[in-house]
Write a structure and sequence with these properties.
mainly beta, Porin, 8-stranded antiparallel beta barrel, two-stranded antiparallel sheet, 12 strands, elongated
Length: 257
């Protein structure tokens, strides 16, 4: 007869081990559940960096002070100042490059087009039908921009060098003087400010004000019947307000945080 005592002893030992393990697991309790942290949206930083180009159009207002700088009232021309105020429209385009660090921007821009201005006024102090006039033409400016960005908006100031191809006229019925029109390229400076908004990843719209000052330029040289030259001085200042559209060739996203 087979001895069953060793088998029973082994079974009893296994039972004890299982009971002890179950009791230990009960003492430890259930394993705690760790909830995953919520997903946090990554906000994009809108980029203004890189090359851009676009078109613009708007209004223009000009003021020109014209003075007889030789003081030849004795020659039937007054030594007083006459002013021309005129307005019109402009149309053109711009291109530039921006550097951006966080919310700060520095850029270089070239802006050019055509200013349509035209106006004449009687020359002060004469009853001879003498009139002086102003008509502008092509212009271009080269400026630097400093700006600060806020989400999709950019606010900036700018300033730099400007060139204007303008025309000045002198007309009279006085037989001692001849009529003329002078064309020249005047140089000066421009300064202004603007705001721009990105309404699509690579597209933005802007509004901008610029003041141009071309200083004192030689406006007229009028010759009398005897051939003597008489000089007029022109001080030309122009203000513009325009709207524009730009396309950016850079990435619409600068970084993520």
């Amino acid at each position: 007869m087979t001895n069953s005592k060793p088998v029973l002893s082994a079974a009893a030992a296994i039972g004890v081990i299982i009971s002890v393990s179950a009791a230990s697991a009960a003492d430890l309790g259930a394993v705690p559940y760790a909830k995953a942290p919520p997903l946090v949206a990554i906000d994009p930083v809108i980029s203004w960096a890189g090359f851009y180009a676009g078109l613009n159009a708007g209004g223009v207002w000009a003021h020109s002070d014209i003075t007889d700088i030789n003081g030849y009232a004795a020659a039937a021309l007054p030594a007083t100042v006459t002013s021309i105020n005129t307005n019109g429209f402009l149309a053109g385009g711009q291109a530039g490059y921006n550097w951006q660090a966080s919310n700060f921007l520095f850029g270089l821009e070239a802006d050019g087009g055509y200013m349509d201005l035209g106006g004449t006024t009687p020359l002060t102090g004469t009853a001879s039908g003498t009139r002086v006039g102003l008509r502008s033409g092509a212009y271009i400016d080269f400026t630097g921009r400093l700006g600060i960005t806020y989400d999709r908006a950019l606010f900036y100031v700018k300033g730099g060098y400007a060139l204007l191809d303008d025309a000045s006229s002198f007309s009279t019925v006085t037989g001692s003087f001849s009529s003329l029109t002078r064309h020249s390229t005047d140089s000066g400076y421009t300064i202004g400010a603007g705001a721009e908004y990105k309404f699509a990843p690579n597209w933005s719209a802007k509004v901008e004000y610029l003041h141009y000052d071309f200083g004192n330029v030689l406006g007229y040289t009028v010759f009398s019947a005897g051939g003597a030259p008489f000089l007029f001085n022109q001080n030309l200042r122009i203000d513009t307000v325009k709207a524009g559209l730009n396309y950016s060739f850079g990435s619409p996203i600068l970084a993520r945080y």
